[in-house]
């Protein structure tokens, strides 16, 4: 099944462990498109940040800021009338992590740098926001066992999940499909993935919800 022609730039978002990168890759594979993916493993400060957030938050955050800015610039070069693009992040969400992790003085510096970048951001045609309970996020993070994620705390995942919920409660720049992914497995279940594509194709409003009761 292909996506509707009106969807040329689709973003999958959600907190750590929600499954956004896996779903982004699967969408590109099944629907035929390019991917724009974060690369957390390239951040040399990330492991130190999770072990000592207060001391290492600023360099970790600035590394991600510049990494994402460069990726957005690359996206600006893509002819979206010809190339379908799936991304596992929105540049606009970068301040969510900054607000959560930086001290007030650090956040002021971050804001100045963020504003100075002055990027021309393309608006997604659709945002798929993956929700999951903090318990499920923790399970998934522990299961994949990336070295830089071993020190992530349950409290941090809970705060991050709540921050995402508040952000997307107010977000109205693009249509949003809010997906409760607790009981959905798009990678291993073709039926779940097909259901998702059907819900995307059937979307008519600016905000809709999709979940499974099993």
Structure description:
This protein has 214 residues and is an alpha/beta fold. The chain has one domain (9-210): Rossmann fold. 49% of the residues lie in helices and 12% in strands. It is built from eight helices and six strands. Helix 6 (134-144) crosses helix 7. The chain starts with 8 loop residues before the first strand and ends with a strand. The mean pLDDT is 90.
- Helical residue percent? 40-55%
What is the CATH superfamily? P-loop containing nucleotide triphosphate hydrolases
Roughly what fraction of the amino acids lie in strands?
5-15%
Q: How much is the radius of gyration in Å?
A: 17 Å
Counting DSSP E segments of at least 2 residues, the number of strands comes to 6
Count of runs of 4 or more consecutive helical residues: 8
Uncertain stretches of 5 or more adjacent residues: none
Structural class: alpha/beta
What is the first-to-last residue Cα distance?
A: 24 Å
Shape from CA axes?
globular
Largest sheet: 6 strands, parallel
What's a quick, concise take on this entry?
The chain contains eight helices and six strands.
């Amino acid at each position: 099944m292909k996506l509707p022609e009106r969807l040329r730039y689709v973003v999958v978002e959600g907190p750590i462990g929600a499954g956004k990168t896996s779903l982004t890759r699967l969408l590109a594979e099944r629907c035929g498109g390019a991917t724009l993916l974060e690369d957390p493993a390239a951040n040399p400060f990330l492991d130190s940040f999770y072990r000592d957030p207060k001391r290492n938050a600023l360099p970790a955050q600035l590394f991600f800021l510049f990494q994402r800015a460069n990726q957005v610039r690359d996206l600006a070069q893509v002819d979206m009338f010809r190339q379908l693009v799936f991304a596992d992040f929105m540049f606009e969400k970068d301040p969510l992590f900054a607000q959560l992790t930086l001290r007030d003085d650090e956040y002021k510096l971050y804001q100045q740098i963020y504003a100075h970048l002055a990027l021309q951001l393309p608006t997604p045609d659709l945002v798929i926001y993956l929700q999951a309970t903090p318990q499920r996020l923790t399970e998934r993070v522990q299961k994949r066992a990336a070295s830089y994620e071993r020190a992530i705390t349950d409290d941090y995942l809970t705060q991050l999940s709540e921050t995402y919920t508040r952000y997307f409660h107010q977000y109205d720049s693009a249509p949003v499909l809010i997906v409760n992914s607790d009981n959905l497995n798009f990678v291993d279940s073709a039926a779940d993935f097909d259901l998702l594509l059907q819900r995307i194709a059937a979307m008519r409003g600016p905000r809709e919800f999709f979940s499974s009761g099993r």
